[in-house]
Amino acid sequence: MNNLKVKTGDTVMVIAGDKDDVGKKGKIMSVDRDSMRVLVQGRNMVTRHTRPRRQGDAGGRIEKESSIHVSNVMLVCPKCNKPTRVGYTFVEGKNGKAKKVRTCKKCDKAID
């Protein structure tokens, strides 16, 4: 199992790749843990040429997001609003059990 440190719904900043996308933020739409890739909303757009499958369908060029390797994105802390590395701390949860929580390395606040 791969520990990716990002989840669906997190805001991330693209730190490498296409020069048009580097430095821009987006929300993660899906995570593929097997190939270690994420789909970021509005980033890494590709053009897909499609033909109409049924009568009445529209064909043509469709712009859609393509996946980005997880190493090319960096989580944006919701508290300090800066791209940051992710650390883990254990906090006491329900029933006295320790719960693992993601934390920001810059402001030391819990992300989850």
Commentary on this structure:
- The chain has 112 residues and is mainly β.
- It is built from no helices and 9 strands.
- Strands 6-3-2-1-7 form a 5-stranded antiparallel β-sheet, with no helix packed on it.
- A hairpin with a 5-residue loop joins strand 8 and strand 9 (98-104).
- The protein is elongated.
- The mean pLDDT is 91.
How is this fold's topology laid out?
Blueprint: E1 11-14, E2 25-32, E3 37-40, E4 45-50, E5 60-65, E6 68-69, E7 73-75, E8 86-92, E9 98-104
Antiparallel strand pairs: 1-2, 1-7, 2-3, 3-6, 4-5, 8-9
Total strands: 9
- Main sheet record: 5 strands, antiparallel
Task: Report the span from N to C terminus.
Answer: 21 Å
Secondary-structure-derived class: mainly beta
Characterize the overall form: elongated
* Strand adjacency order, main sheet: 6-3-2-1-7
Q: What do the pLDDT scores average to?
A: 91
User: Residue ranges: pLDDT <50 for 5 or more in a row?
Assistant: none
> Number of helical segments?
0
What is the radius of gyration? 18 Å
Name the beta content range: 35-45%
Give the ordered list of helices and strands: EEEEEEEEE
